[in-house]
Amino acid sequence: MCTLDVNMDIANLEDTIMEMAFSPAASPDLDTHQAVIPWPTLEGEATYIRPSQEFLEQRRSATARNSVAHPGRRLSIASSAHTRSSSCASSTTSHMLGTSPFPAPLKPLPPVPASVRTSQRTSSQPSSCDKSSLDMDRLSHASSTTSSNLSRASMQSFSVRPPVPRRPPEHLRPSLPSSPDTRRLYPLEIVYWKQLAGAEKRKSGKTNMVHYLDISTKASTVATKHGNSVIKFWEVSSGDLVCTVKISAYTEAHCRSRDYLIRSHLILSETNHLAAMATRFGRTIEIWDWKTNKRLQVIDDVDRWVAGRFETHDVGWSPLVAYRGKDALIDLFTATPQKKPYVKVRTIDVRKAGLPFTPQYPELALSSTSPLLVAAAGPRPPRAGHPPPDRETMLVTWDITDFREVSNAPDRVVRPWQHKELETALPCNLTAYGDLILSIWIPSGYRTVTKHNARGEVEYTLAPTPVPFRYVLVWDLSENSTRTYGIPNTTSCISPDCRFVAYSQVAERRSKIAILDAQSGEEVWSAGGEGNLKSLDQFGDLSKVTDLAFSADGRFLVVGEVNGNTSVYDVRESAL
């Protein structure tokens, strides 16, 4: 970087100022050798365009013609960041004649900042030359003290464009439109296949009702929860009942919802005939061998849990995750071929994870394609006498590749504040597959009303509010972006491969069962709806539907009914 000579003529001065005007501005708070990246630039090096010598020669010729018509025009070089067309204005007639009406500066002008791409400095402390270029506005101030004949307007034109503000965090930006899915969507056809007749004639009502469904990885076994304490295992190919397991349950069973978040059961291994079941008050997990009808292991004090499916112990490790709300701990167990199928190998202390707040009773999920643990937590329910919850929605991921005690720190955290529809919502379904994490959120049926009493004090009361929709939140890890779309507030599910979202809606003359593209929310198949109730013949009365579940590959849709029966439908994709 060199210093301009005091006797430099105005032509060279203009060239230098043009370089400065097109160079990136420096900020006193930042290292002068770090480029300020504008928002649209997502990756790669920042690019700044410098005028070529040919461009400058053409500009001088144009200004010469212009100065003849306007001999009184003074030197003015604008450098607005928003008006590129006015970056260079005409110079005076005297400049074109080789003389200047202004005296030469008494002191050298500040040096021109070095090119961002050629600088190799890594020190955070600027040199003496760098300090002089930290703020280009100082150029006007320094020059005005050395030349009293120079006008204020001319000096203000020397300041360059301000730096573009830093790109905000992804979770503070508005949702971007969903990108096209790389997997082509084909028209779907849903065909009834068979029924797993679980209804018992001597029982009726809630005793027969299917409250929860789970399908094995190979889609050859289905487990259904009936009443409070009965879990039945079915062979899908034959439709036969394999066995019935009776558990101890001290709470009334319900379908999963905002008010009932107990995960009933999960098929762990079809080969080893292992299943995990929530028993007693829903805070105890029991591992059963359903073929021998024996209980193998008990894990107590579990408020939320999830488990990975496995068929062999030879590939990786198959975790079972248990969240304990009292101490905010997440215990990780791994499957073993020992007498007790699971042994604890790692604990994540959520309070030491460095999160903005400690989530209470989060929904858990394990990715079926990578060693990733996901937790989704919503705000506490609105309460009378308390202010409404504020920004208490959060999703967190942990890399659990290593089962040893390595770190409590999460892999990623997102707080989707921009989605106002989630302010009071709780997650009731969470699925992770590949780069996608999908969750279904149900808003609260009450909202907090703020008012002032006669003494001027703030009072918080509750008012009922309708909840016509629940919301699907799509977290795309590849883009680090989130977006939402609404579905009717009714029975719904997400396919394990994150391709589909299904729901069954009951409404007067508008009952409907539909399958949506999970990423965009676009409807890809439906039956029923206004004027199309005839298409519901193969599904029967949708008011009897209690639960929905997809197979792991999305090829089967299983529907549980209030009468205890379970229907299996074939999801066919037809080529265009």
Automatic annotation (TrEMBL):
Region span, Disordered: 60-180
InterPro entries with a match to the protein in the record: Quino_amine_DH_bsu, WD40/YVTN_repeat-like_dom_sf
Coiled coil: none
Domain of life: Eukaryota
Biased composition (Low complexity): 76-94, 114-128, 141-154
Name this protein carries in UniProt: Uncharacterized protein
Lineage, broadest ranks: Eukaryota, Fungi, Dikarya, Ascomycota, Pezizomycotina
Residue ranges with Pro residues bias: 102-113
